[in-house]
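To whoever is on call:

I kicked off a structure prediction for a single chain this morning and the downstream step that reads the tokens threw a length-mismatch warning. I double-checked the sequence; it's 278 residues and nothing unusual in it as far as I can see. Pasting both halves so you can look.
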Amino acid sequence: MVQRPIVRRTVAPSGLLGVALLLAAIVTLVAALPPVHAATATAPLTGAINGPSRVGSGLNASYLVTAQGGPAEAPNGTQVGIYSYRASIAATDPTGAAILPATGVLVNGSVPLTLKAPKAIESVTIYVLVKSELSGTNVSQNLSFTVQIVQPYTVAASLIVGSTASSTPFFLTVDLDGQPVGSIAVPALSPGTSFPLSFSYVPPDLAPGWHTFTLSLAQQHGLVAFAGGADEFSSSFYVAGEPPNYTIWYFAGATAFVGAIFIWSTRVGARRRGRPKK
């Protein structure tokens, strides 16, 4: 058996130096690279519009837009970016209608908006495009809310100040059927002047029949009065009920008519069949 000679190879010192320099260069390059951060998942962007679903024509109403999630929210729930929005409305007749402010940012995830309702009795939809953004990354979400514009119930009166009297600003409470439903801000009034009052109310629901608004100046101690000198003013209005549903009576009448025709036809047929042949 022939044994092959063992050949030993050695690396020259210059070769070792080159390998060391190469390793040092790789370490330096890796150290110079920017740190790689693990990607963190963000919660999906969600939001809502909250406010009254019924508004009187020509009146104002307040709404609150809220948003959370998206790049602007850190995993621990704190806001680290910006929430911005753009608001608009859609209506058949938008004359006089607006949503304000139309653009802006949400502070702490919310922003109040004011709807100026149109004069027309119709449905109005509020649209708000919310954007969540951080360092050039952003996502958006479309929000919507439908409002029914209705005819409000209104009470109007005039205050009269005596020729030698005056009054400081005060709030006049408005009662409906003995229950407070709002107030009217009255400014400071000078002697011998008058001030027109007006209050509009949109109830969630009122039973059919008569209802009464009442305004009282009892706490003003005679400094001001309503036209005519009274310290109380009332105004009544009537709420009509739903129109009666005659459908069931129409159906019953038609059924009775068909039944009568059937009975009449049966009797006439029986008489004809029962006649003797000549």
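Update from on-call: the warning came from a stale cache, not from the record. Cleared it. Sanity check on the structure: The domain at 46-150 is CATH 2.60.40.10 (Immunoglobulin-like).
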